[in-house]
Amino acid sequence: MTNRAIISTPDAPEAIGPYSQAVKVGNTVWLSGQIPLVPGTMELVTGDIQAQARQVFSNLAAVAEAAGGSLASVVKINISLTDMADFAAVNEVMAEFLQPPFPARACVQVAGLPKGVAIEVEAILVV
Predict the structure, then answer these.
(1) Is the pTM of the predicted complex or chain greater than 0.90?
(2) Is the N end or the C end of the chain the one with fewer CB atoms within 10 Å?
(3) How far is residue 56's CA from residue 94's CA, in Å, rounded to a whole number?
């Protein structure tokens, strides 16, 4: 694929495994899942789910911008939560970062996430 580009920015956490922050092919960008890690320090945000979700969406925004887009360019979001009781609180945070019309979305409860976090979010955008 000659039009495949790897997206990387120091404004989002480094990958903690063998993957890229995002991959762009044509005008579509697949953003890898983000957890509540602080760029630079790679420390986990602790506290309530809203603080964690804000860090996750900030990380996604940084990668989207590095790809030439923004969260307004997102067409699909996948949210993984370890506790579905956090659903409403995460919705509130998502509404702080995205405006209508909202992208398509899935939200699932999972048994566990990297580093024991409560939330991971991945996205697809078109730029």
Answers:
(1) yes
(2) N
(3) 10
